[in-house]
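Troubleshooting log. The previous structure file for this entry was overwritten by mistake, so regenerating from the original sequence record. Sequence copied from the archived sheet and checked twice against the printout by T.R.
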Amino acid sequence: MPNSSSSGYTYNSSGTNSQGNHYCSRDYGNGSNSYHYSNSNGSYYYSNPNGSTYYNSAATAERNSLGLAY
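Regenerated output below.
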């Protein structure tokens, strides 16, 4: 996994499983880490180095792909 020290982080790990779900973990060097999951159904989850999180459920991802309003 390449380091991105010019971006302020290094990769801890990343990969994709047989179902096409992807994960990535980053180390920001000051005790702050982040990770995210991106799933083949369009859902995702992010945990950021500042402690914030955000996600998109599979149902929301499907509505977005169909152009439907919430």
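The longest strand covers residues 10-16. Archived copy saved in two places this time.
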